[in-house]
Amino acid sequence: MEKITQFTQLLETIEQVEKVLIYVSTENCSVCTADNPRVQALVNETKIPAFEIKVNELPEAAGQFQLFTAPVVLLFHQGKEWHRQARIIDFDVLKYRMQQLMEDA
């Protein structure tokens, strides 16, 4: 996953990439560290473009996207939030939604 470090870059990515996954983590988050490789494996399997942000480095993202916990996985389609999972990620549901997005949407 490519890391996004500026809020404007995040907004441009969501607007310009038709289907995209945003993985939100924070520093010193053991769950974020543990979930990252599992999300990356699903990204590799489904071929969805994926980007990571560290919410403590982009505090404006926390406010704009209502990111009150970490980790968060956001799926966007044509600039609109399509699916969200936060804190406890159900990887079976996430995989299904990623496949659904890549096939149907």
Task: Explain briefly what this protein structure is.
The chain is of the alpha/beta class and 105 residues long. It is 44% helix and 26% strand. The longest helix has 17 residues, at 30-46.
Q: What does this protein structure show overall?
A:
Helix 2 packs parallel to helix 4. The radius of gyration is 12 Å and the shape is globular. 26% of the residues are buried. Strand 2, helix 2 and strand 3 form a beta-alpha-beta unit. Helix content is 44%, strand content 26%. The protein has a 5-stranded mixed sheet, with helices on both faces. The protein has a single domain, classed as Glutaredoxin, CATH 3.40.30.10. It has 4 helices and 5 strands. The chain starts with a strand and ends with a helix. The model has no long low-confidence stretch (mean pLDDT 94). With 105 residues, it is of the alpha/beta class.
